[in-house]
Amino acid sequence: MITGKFIAGNGDLQEAYGIREEVFVKEQGFPAEIERDEYDARAIHALLYDDDHKPAATGRLYIDNEGFWHLGRICVRKDLRGKQLGDLVMRMMLDKAIGAGAGFFRLSAQSSVEGFYRIYGFTPYGEEYEVCGKPHVNMEATKESIVAAVFSGCRGEKFV
User: Fold this and answer.
1) Beta strand pairing status for 3-8 and 104-110?
2) With CB atoms counted within 10 Å of each terminal CB, which end of the chain scores lower, N or C?
3) 111: which DSSP letter?
4) Helix (H, G, I), strand (E, B), or coil: what is residue 123?
5) Residue 18 and residue 39: Cα distance in Å, rounded?
6) Using an 8 Å Cβ cutoff, are 136 and 126 in contact?
7) What pLDDT, in 10s, does the model give residues 52-67?
8) Is 14 strand, coil or helix?
9) Contact 61, 43 (CB under 8 A)
10) What are the domain boundaries of the chain?
11) Whole-angstrom distance, CA of residue 74 vs CA of residue 28
């Protein structure tokens, strides 16, 4: 059974960091020194565990000084991809943010996975840019676009 939890930025993030290092540093080749940043301490981190209770997927959520909620560092262990764990991480974080009153969202996506974020109501803005040689795009969404894309089919919908 897949289980999940949230961890505050001042909590024990070693399991989340382990997944991020495996995916972003070892698999995708991003430098280790840029993988962790100042936003980790102020973020809420989602962490999923697989059937064997091993860390499986993670993501983080934080609010900036302009009131935008940022999603990022979303990743799933390679051996567990295709099992909808990325979807569960996204839904956990979006539910947490909307429940806390979020209205506007932003993220920076690798261009190769832009379509994944479109499923949740995100649209690109600005020009494509590179991070360590990999193309990225900024994306944004509103509470309304997320609710329409993700939660509109839920019974007892609480977000509208």
Assistant:
1) unpaired
2) N
3) G
4) strand
5) 17
6) no
7) 999 999 999 999 999 9
8) helix
9) yes
10) 3-151
11) 13
Kindly report the pTM of this predicted structure. 0.90
In tens, the pLDDT along 112-143 reads 999 999 999 999 999 999 999 999 999 999 99
d(CA 104, CA 41): 21
- In the chain, what's the furthest Cα-to-Cα distance? 45
* Pairing of β 55-63 and β 44-49: antiparallel
CA distances from 71 to 43, 53, 61, 101 (A): 9, 24, 5, 15
Taking CA atoms, 82 is separated from 53, 107, 121, 154, 158, in Å, by: 18, 22, 20, 23, 29
Q: How many helices (H) and strands (E) in the chain?
A: 5, 7
Per-residue DSSP letters for 131-149? ETTEEEEEEEEEHHHHIII
> Which of these, 4, 14, 18, lies nearest to 96 by C-alpha position?
4
Domain at 3-151, CATH class:
alpha beta
